[in-house]
Amino acid sequence: MALLDEKYTDHPFYGVLRMTTYLTKDKHIVIGKDHVRTLLRRMGIMALFPTRNLSRPNPAHRIYPYLLKGVEIVRPNQVWSVDITYVRLGRGFAYLVAIIDWYSRRVLSWRLSNTLETDFCVEALDEALRLHGKPDIFNSDQGSQFTSDAFIKRLKAEETVKISMDSRGRAYDNIFVERLWWSVKYEDIYLRDYQGIPECKSGLERYFRFYNTERRHQSLKNRTPWEVYAAGMDWKCDDGRNALTVSTLGRA
Questions:
Q1: Does the predicted TM-score (pTM) go above 0.90?
Q2: Digits of tens for pLDDT over the chain (252 positions)?
Q3: Which of 33, 166, 246, 252 is the most exposed, having the fewest neighbouring CB atoms within 10 Å of its CB?
Q4: Does residue 104 share a domain with residue 34?
Q5: Distances (CA, A) of 117 to 20, 33, 61, 86, 166
Q6: In-domain check, residue 109
Q7: Rounded CA separation 154/53 (Å)
Q8: At 25, is the secondary structure helix, strand, or coil?
Q9: Element (H, E) at 82
Q10: Whether 243 and 118 share a structural domain
Q11: CB neighbour list of residue 187: distance below 8 Å, 6 or more residues apart
Q12: CA 219 to CA 245: how far, in whole Å?
């Protein structure tokens, strides 16, 4: 499962067949595709090319349109997004949800859970709204946690928040959170080898403080997410503009 997690972090478009080939050819592990499928389902990250399937859709829930194509991101709290990732532990595994501000990359809130129930996602959303105001647009994938009545009701209580959801089959509509997952896993989780949820939670608290207040991003002109979030419009992109355009960030 550790090998699957690392490969999936690098290549979220890998499905059962590619994962099986990777394990058998590159790692020389004798394993069948049915076993690989079972492991990926247990981890909650079985891929349906070219995207992940950790947060599975519920056909009974309403799906909202994707609102961010070509949108310029010009200030904090314009766009927030949310996602869930698998966290491997020495004794079992957990799931991590985080809400991030697109403009600054600041992690606004996060929660760790041993199940994929909706509650921990709603708790993270409630904390972000309570501590940081509200965004113009809130973007998520089509997973059942984010289309659930409880999650949507909390967003709609803010009245002016527009709800946006990734297109199915798009791995990078939520590009900034995907980059966050790569960072948190390679810079913390894989290095620390957390054994249980309490230890992992304590470690992630330290890491997210570091990520927000000390880790400098080249794309933010070597500022930290906290600095950019606090400064608002007081910085420029390399091309002289003060806006990010979603169409320039990997979307076709």
A1: no
A2: 677 667 666 665 567 777 778 778 787 788 887 887 776 766 655 453 333 445 555 566 799 999 998 999 999 999 999 999 989 898 888 999 999 999 999 999 999 999 999 999 999 999 999 999 999 999 999 999 999 999 999 999 999 999 999 876 555 567 788 889 989 999 999 999 999 999 999 999 999 999 999 999 988 999 999 999 998 844 444 444 444 545 434 332
A3: 252
A4: no
A5: 29, 28, 15, 14, 20
A6: yes
A7: 24
A8: helix
A9: strand 79-88
A10: yes
A11: 207
A12: 13
The span from the CA of 104 to the CA of 111, in Å, is 20
Q: Look up residue 220 and give its two tokens.
A: 């933010």
Place of tokens 């896993």: 185
Asked if the structure places residue 52 within a domain, the reply is no
CB atoms under 10 Å from CB of 246, counted, come to 20
Within-domain flag for 217: yes
**Tokens found for residue 196:** 């249980």
Nearest to 61 by CA among 145, 166, 148: 148
Do both 79 and 26 map to the same domain? no
Position of tokens 């309490």? Answer: 198
CA separation for the pair 132, 154 (Å, rounded): 15
How many domains, the chain? 2
Q: Which two tokens stand for residue 120?
A: 């921990």
β 137-140/79-88 pair status: parallel
The confidence score (pLDDT) of residue 207 equals: 97
The pairs formed by 234-241 with CB atoms below 8 angstroms and a separation of 24 or more are none
Task: Report the candidate in 57, 1, 60 with the shortest Cα–Cα distance to residue 29.
Answer: 1
Provide the CA 133 distance to its chain's centre, in angstroms.
Answer: 20
Q: Please tell me the distance from the alpha carbon of residue 16 to that of residue 49, in angstroms, as a whole number.
A: 10
Instruction: Decide: residue 103, CB within 10 A, 0-12 exposed, 13-18 middle, 19+ buried.
Output: buried
Which residue's entry shows tokens 């390679």?
Answer: 186
Calpha distance 2→218 (Å, rounded)? 30
